[in-house]
Amino acid sequence: MLLNEFLLLGAALFAIGVYGVLVRRNGVMVLMSIELILNAVNINLIAFGALHHTVVGQVFALFVITIAAAEVGVGLAIVLMLYRNRSSIDLDQIDAMRG
Amino acid sequence: MILGATMVAQHITFGIIAAIVIVGALRVVTTNNVVHAALWLVAVLSGVGGSFILLGAEFVGVTQILIYVGAIVVLFLFGIMLTRAPIGREVNLTGSSWPMGLVVAIPIAGVLAYTLIDAFGTDHIGNDTRQLTAQVSDTLFQNYLIPFEVVSVLLLAALIGAIVLARKE
Amino acid sequence: MENFLNHWGLTLAVFIPLIGAALMMVIPRAREDLHKWIALLTSAVVFGVTILIASYFDYDNSGQLQFVVNRSWIDAINSRYIVGIDGISLPLVLLTALIVVSVVIYSWNHWPDPKNPKAFLILTLILETGMIGTFVAQDLILFFVFFEVVLLPMYFMIGVWGGERRLYAAIKFFLFTLFGSALMIVSFIALYFLAKGPNGQPLNTFSMLELNNAQGIAHTTQLLIFGGMFIGFGIKVPIFPFHTWLPDAHTEAPTQGSVILAAILLKLGAYGFIRVAIPILPEAAESWAPWIALLAVIGIIYGALCCLAQTDMKRLIAFSSVAHMGFVMLGIATLTTFGLNAAVMGMVAHGLITGMLFYLAGSIKERFHTLEIRRLGGLLLQAPRMGWILGFCAMASLGLPGLAGFWGEFPALLASYNPAEGLSEPLFRVYLVVGALGTVFAAGYLLWLLQRTAFGVPKEEWEGEHFHDVEAPEWIAWLPLLLLIVVIGFFPNIVFHVTDTAVQSALSGVQTLTAAK
Amino acid sequence: MNVLAFTAPHVDYHALAPEIILTTTLIVVLLVDLASERNRALLGTLAGIGLLASMVPVLTLAVDGTDRFVLSGNPSYVVDNFALTMKALFIVAGYIVVLLSTNYVAEGDYYEGEYYFLLLTSVLGMVVMASSRDLISIFIALETLSIPAYMLATWRKRDPKSNEAGLKYYLMGVFATSIMLYGMSLLFGVTGSTVLVDISASLGSGTTPIVTLGIVFCVVGFAFKVSAVPFHTWAPDTYEGAPTPITAFLSVSSKTGGFVAILSLIFVGFFGQHDVWEPMMWALAVLTMTVGNLIALRQTNVVRLFAYSSIAQAGYILAPLAVAGELSTRQESLSAVVIYLLIYAAMNLGAFGVIIAVARKTRSAELESFNGLFEYAPGLTVVMTVFLFALAGIPPLAGWFAKFEIFRATANAGTGAGYVLAVFVGINSVIALFYYARVAQAMWMQSAPDGDRTPVRVPPALVGALGICVVAVVVIGVYPQLVAKVGDMATFAFT
Amino acid sequence: MILHWVWLMPAIMATSFVVILLLGKRMPKKGAEVGIAAVGLCFVIALLSAGSWITRVNDASGGHTVKEQVATAEEHGASEEAAAAEVEEAHPPVQPVVTERNWFESGGVKFTIGTLVDGLSVMMFIVVTIISLLVHIYSTDYVRGDRRYTHYFAFLSLFTASMLMLVMSLNTVQFITSWELVGLCSFVLIGHWFEEKPNSDAALKAFIMNRVGDVGLLVGMITLFWAADSFDILKINTLANSGGIDHLVLLVAACCLTAAVMSKSGQFVLHTWLPDAMAGPTPVSALIHAATMVVAGIFMVARLYSVFFHGLSIGSGNTNLLAVIGGVTVIGGAGLAFVQNDIKKVLAYSTVSQLGYMVMALGVGAWTAALFHLFTHAFFKAGLFLGSGSVAHSVHSFDMKEDMGGLKRFMPKTFWTFAICTVALIGIPPLAGFWSKDEILAGGHELGVHNVYETFMIVGIIGALMTAAYMTRCVYLTFFGEPRGAAADPHHHPHESGPLIVVPLYILAGLAIVTGLANFPWGPDGINLRFEYFVQPVGDYFPTLGVITFNPYVAVFSTLAGATGILLAYLYWFRGAFHGATSRNKAARAGYTVLLNKYYFDHLYTDIIVGDIKGPIARASYWFNQNVIDAVVNGVGVGSREAANFLYGTVDQGIVDGAVNGSGFGAEGTGQLLRRLQSGKVQQYGALLFGGAVILAGILVFTL
Predict the structure, then answer these.
(1) Chains E and C in direct contact, meaning 3 or more beta-carbon pairs closer than 8 angstroms
(2) Per-residue confidence (pLDDT) for residue E524, from 0 to 100
(3) What is the pLDDT of residue D348?
(4) With an 8 Å Cβ cutoff, are C456 and E105 in contact?
């Protein structure tokens, strides 16, 4: 298999994720898009691991998955709290502080 | 002969997986329905998991399915419900800022693609890419012991913090 | 005794004020008299120490650094605590100590609002540390530190106790000086890395003594480094066109602040040229000299003309400083022993005279509550003694022979008739003539000031008002200065004798350069 | 294919002691909090003691002085002078933050136990960061110090500002992390290893596009942490919204954490690729200090002003890295950065301490609220003045030496770029003075709003914190040799 | 030997200054007594020093033999050259007495301080001390009851001190110092009544215009210093004499110094301050602005004569700067004196014109003549001023037209002394003015090749005529005719002044009569030409000058000129001749009868002279003076003020300062702009983050 098949898939996923986090107004959707980026990373890691015949790639990927879970948890908590205080999670409206 | 067959098979499977992933991802960031987005995300994550297995990292692939599909997406759905995002069709999930998104995302894609192709033009991944899960655990507990321990603390912290933040007063 | 002085004299002179300040910090603000006495005592002790140093000073080779102390300070950057005093520093150190004492005495019953003597006197003492430190530091970094130490106290003096536009003036003063010193420090560091010893090994030191006549710096680099210092010191002097902070600072500062500014702070810059820039980079100095001289004479005329335009007494005196420091810089730019002597003399004289003028402005303001020249007049009738003193100082300031001011201006002009080898004679002679014309303007604005403030009859608004003439604290604070103006006027040797050999050693670099030519 | 036997790695517990103590402390804090509702006051003290305790092994290790692998034969987690210096810095800074927090947290009803728990976790992450020498450890350390910080930033739950602060911090943090991870994955892909020494070995010198991309993305992740322009945007909003002690924590500890990571990456990981990161650092430094200072000129909220000030400061700290690529300049630059970080910690924590103290009375961080402080709180005013002008770099306050070291390091390269950078730093420090002076002006030269002269009561904990900082600033300023020595010693082993 | 102790004089006066300033107010006579005592002492010392100088000269030239030679030379009426030779050898060099102490040292150059005593300085001692003494005494009455009585005397002392210092100064630095100090005193004393603005204006004008000249002084002296590598006047002179200094340098120096002369000695065009200076108390005008300070310029030229002589190549007999300036001043000053109504102004302009004589004389090389005229002029001009003061004392005004007239009968003593001095000034033999002025004319006549200097003799004679005329007018308006204004005030008639005022007048009048004999041209040896003999230096520090012998023709001619002047004036004012068109004919007839019909040219002659000089020329020159020269001077002042305003208002506050503040605002503006980046929208932050990352990466990837 071509390494680049996977890498480019990752790259595409990364770019799509970036697009997502930049344009989605709903906080939860942004979190989802982040997951896309992280998965892109994971694809890279696994693919490279396979390339170099080392399990380090997989270990790294596992760590990433774990951290991703934690991050999502925290992220959702924050979004939730936000929703409690202003009953909306539209990121465009969150600009009380600027300048 | 067999080799060739497996190669073909691999290519075909990869093609399918890639298609699912890309399409799913695009839908995730474009659909105007929150729940659909979550479901499309499931597709993407499963696809990625599949590609892991294709690369011979079964353990990680399985973990991926379990954690993401099993846990994280559920979390998302909870989040969606708790934040009362309208379940039905909704028009303005994507802000007016989508051109900005493109302006940033496309160059990224370009740069990444250029460098990747430039670097690994036609490198092949050997066919036998399978590694024993035991190796994974060994490396984890031999070389990455400390990060592993730290992650446990981190998860605890995330847990407690999340509870504090999310709980009602 | 002498032994003790050798090891501790300068260090004491520098740090005793801090001890006093620390002591005052812990004493509650309410006990004003106690604060006054402590401040007075401290400054008096410092003055005593400097006198002692002067008395044990070996005048026969005033070119040598004396009372040198060389202790390790920041080994990491090979910068050491080196203090020493020679013929150039000595007069300035004495002047500083004297002025501070007189300022403290003057403050006895002159408190700019908001009163708070505690803070005011503490700042004064910190200032003293910075000023004396700058004059005795022999290590570039130490010099830099002391050079900067004076900024904060003066900033607060202007900003807290100043006049109408004090905020503007204070920050302006601060920003200008800081800008200069930023470039200055870069130059110092460049010296640290680039200067090479006689046999080509890099010196990597900040000690001025070792850096003197440093070799092995490309000419253009030298020019740049000198340029950095030029801006650093030039802003402090101030040289035209970096002078604009000065009128504001002087005008807004409280009397004591203006006195210290005029008498000492301005000297730091010129001193820097003599002590640091010229000895270390004689070659660059020679290339820069014509331009410095040009700016100097521009400053002389320009400052004088601006004086003529002033309607505020204090501002007028401030601009006169620009003109006078112009003479000092002209003297320095000639790169001759004559010129440098003149410069040091000019600094001392300007310190005493302009200091006095600012004192007078302060006392006048205290009585008339204004310095608007057109509202003043008839001072000689309402407070004759003060009027006469004003006249005296005006005369001294316009360089009347027989008073200190003359010995700053005349030798400077004399020197610029034929400057050091390698400097264009015709050019400097033109400067000489222009500078001489400056003296006419000086007479013009000072006498004009005198006429409008001291002569004539009081304006209606002061009709019949009685103003108390010079009071005890004022007398005590002023007499030493006035006497010195006369004494130095008649025996310039007091200064020249001290500086003469010292400036020769400061110029040794230039001389070897010309000798090589 | 036979299963290879697992051999448990030998752990050097002495080297690991600080982390262990910290971990136990944070668990104890958590348990105590759960156990009793009453003695909340205990928690802060407990956390403080724990931090001080974890300082002990650091000192013993410093005395012992040998550089060591924590896991035998594994260069991915080491204890060397650099690590020790930074650990010490993190722990002390953490201690001061605890002091700053004590009354703040106690008086506005917050979740106290969890607060300290998260704070300690974050400190733990930093301490780990100091020793991490491989991509995974660095990544984990980064997350460990970040994730609690995200939550602490939004700790004032009912305050929408605080939420907003947390959210922005969180999202930007996650974005940055993802970029960094992608970079790391590339580096791993090129070298097949995550251990920095191996990476540098296999990268050698010179670079290829893929390596460049990897390095840039990696560094960007931490450029975000140190709030370098253009990755700084979160800082002002977060600093303003977050609880002030946390702001102090972010502006000092987490920023330092970012720098530690950058240092280990470029000095250990890809030193050979300096022609990639040198220009990058140059651009970042210039941008950061200039933009930070210029925007700061227009701020009217002190905390926000300090946010921009700390951005600008980050710019100064980045400057030496722009010329650190040569073996001749490497050590100079490293020690310059370390020294700056040490001094900066003292100055900034102190400043925030005063802000907290003043806010206790004025309940505001607007610049006006500082007017006439000198009239009713001369002590605080003087202390604040000290910190302000230390930050501005006026001798004889510690800041001057930090700046001086920057000048020295940049000039040391002897290149045009270096001197230009030095001049940039010079001019910027002048611009900076302007807004620092504005705060001083408000305190000294304005009169108190509606003549309210009631003095400010400063609780002992705060006094302690301020005391430590002031003493440090003044002493270091007068005798910089103290830090200069540390800076020279703090070197990487095993590169 | 007393000549080594002359420094005592300034010392004494300085002490008296300090004493009066500090204790004066507490003294019975408010400090006046101290001043008088001090000056008296100095006068004694001056006399002693004069005596010992005379003996010194005599000893040097070793007794009678020499003088006999001189005598024989005279008797045989040998040719001038011969006589010159005789006189030269008859008068061997007399080294001046030098006392020198180190003052200070700078840049390897020794600055010394000391006294240089030779005939010139001794002569000046006499003049200064006598006049100062008399003025002191006179003032005790004149300014009695003045609110600043004590300060007045204090500064009289200071002035005397500095003036004595000036004339005995050994080197140029010392010279400059005292030169400025006398200027200061003049400033203070002119502004004595500073309550009125005109007075303080006058004071400022005096000081500042002198400053202008001082620029020349400074530059000139500096030039000389570097040329001779010394401040020592003797050394400079010697070098200049021996050609040790490049001629160009000398020329430059001389020209620069001439500027100083112009300002200090009120030469055209820097003279305008002098008339204004009359705002000061009259005794001050007598002392400072007639007798002593204003001649400082003359003295300087005399002192550094070698410099001027060679620098302006006076010896070559070509016209030169000094001579021309002097000439112009003679006529200009005299012309101006015609149209003044303020008696002091008349005298002031007369002083200007007389100083013009001296400068002119120096310009043509008649050194002795100039100094001799200085000597005599000091006395009778002081006398005139004090006389006018005495008049003003009684009528409380200086306006001749308004408040005087017919005072002769009220104050005869004043009148007679004034008259004597006037005659002396006009130069009617045998009074002082005659001898001295005559020598100048003779100098003009005899010196120089091809008698280029004849011109200046003509100028001198015209000047003499005009002098005579305006002085007569002055006397007439003051003392004759009907009393006017204050003089006619019935309530209190003008009264003769008290002894303290009159006695000095007597003395001065007496001196005005006798001093002329000091350089009496004939007579037995030991009597004749004593002044030249003792005063004119001989030695390598002084150029060899042509000898001037008394020239009867010149003498007669000048006397006639004077007489004519008086006569015309007499006719015009006393007899009211020449008034209107008809009066012209009367004048013709009068001239006819007086001059015993000399072909009618006198008609034309007198007509033109009187008519024009009194009319257009004088008015024109006065107009020129007020509207051009003065205007220029004031204009310069105003102009610089305007320039200053512009410079300060626009350049300093606008541009220089503006630039700085501008950059400040610029910075803030940019800051404001950059704040837009901080939109508060997290996703835009994100865009910046990712965008920044990819741009950085892109640039590096594609460039490296």
Answers:
(1) yes
(2) 66
(3) 95
(4) no
Closest residue in D to C164 (Cα–Cα): D445
Distances (CA, A) of E292 to C452, E135, E166: 30, 12, 11
The helix (run of H) or strand (run of E) holding residue E18 is helix E8-23
Of A18, A94, A97, the CB nearest to E690: A18
Q: Which runs of consecutive H residues, i.e. helices, occur in E447-569?
A: 454-479, 499-514, 530-535, 552-569
Give the range among A60-74, D426-440, E76-90, E622-636 with minimum mean pLDDT.
Answer: E76-90
Contact D423 C183 (CB under 8 A): yes
pLDDT value at B147 more than 90:
yes
As a whole number, mean pLDDT of residues B87-114 equals: 82
- Subunits with 3+ C-beta pairs closer than 8 A to E: A, B, C, D
Contacts of A98 in chain E (CB under 8 A): 675, 678-680
pLDDT at E582: 37
**CB < 8 Å & 24+ apart, contacts of B117-120:** B117/A4, B117/A8, B118/D208, B118/D209, B118/D210, B119/D190, B119/D208, B119/D209, B119/D210, B120/A3, B120/A4, B120/A7, B120/D189, B120/D210
A59 to chain D: nearest residue by CA?
D136
Query: What's the per-residue H, E or C state across chain A?
Result: CEHHHHHHHHHHHHHHHHHHHHHECEHHHHHHHHHHHHHHHHHHHHHHHHHHCCCHHHHHHHHHHHHHHHHHHHHHHHHHHHHHHHCCCEHHHCCCCCC
Record the pTM: 0.88
Quote the CA–CA distance of B103 and B106 in Å, as a whole number.
6
- D486, D339 Cβ separation under 8 angstroms: yes
**CB neighbour list of residue D161: distance below 8 Å, 6 or more residues apart:** A96, A97, D240, D241
Mean pLDDT of B125-139: 80
Res. C278: pLDDT tops 80: yes
Task: Tell me the mean pLDDT in the region D327-331.
Answer: 88
Angstroms from B20 CA to nearest CA on chain D: 22
- What's the whole-number mean pLDDT along residues C78-83? 92
CA E631 to chain centre: 22
Residue pair C230/C288 in contact by the 8 Å Cβ criterion: yes
C-alpha distance from D202 to closest chain E C-alpha (Å): 19
From chain D, the residues in CB contact with B161 under 8 A are 114, 118, 147-148, 151
Query: Using CA atoms, how far apart are residues A4 and A14, in angstroms rounded to an integer?
Result: 14
CB pair distance less than 8 Å for E107 and C341: yes
**Percent of chain D residues topping a pLDDT of 90:** 67
Q: Which partners does chain C have (≥3 C-beta pairs < 8 Å)?
A: D, E
Per-residue pLDDT tens over the stretch B41-97: 999 999 999 999 988 888 999 999 998 888 899 989 888 888 876 655 555 777 777
Residue D133: the pLDDT is 93
E701 with B107: Cβ contact below 8 A: no
C-alpha to C-alpha distances, D190 to B121, D194, D222, nearest whole angstrom: 13, 10, 21
Residues of chain E found within 8 Å of residue C414, distances taken between Cβ atoms: 222, 225
Best residue in D6, D12, D28, D246 for a mutation probing chain B (most B CBs within 10 Å): D6
pLDDT tens digits, residue range C143-184? 999 999 999 999 999 999 988 888 888 888 888 888 888 889
Give me the interface pTM, i.e. the ipTM.
0.87
The ranges of chain E with pLDDT < 70 are 61-92, 317, 447-452, 487, 522-529, 573-637, 640, 654, 656, 660
Chain B residues near any Cβ of chain E (below 8 Å): 95, 97, 100-101, 103-105, 107-108, 111, 114-115
Count of CB atoms situated within 10 Å of the CB of C515: 8
Interface test with chain B among E683, E684, E694, by most B beta carbons within 10 Å: E694
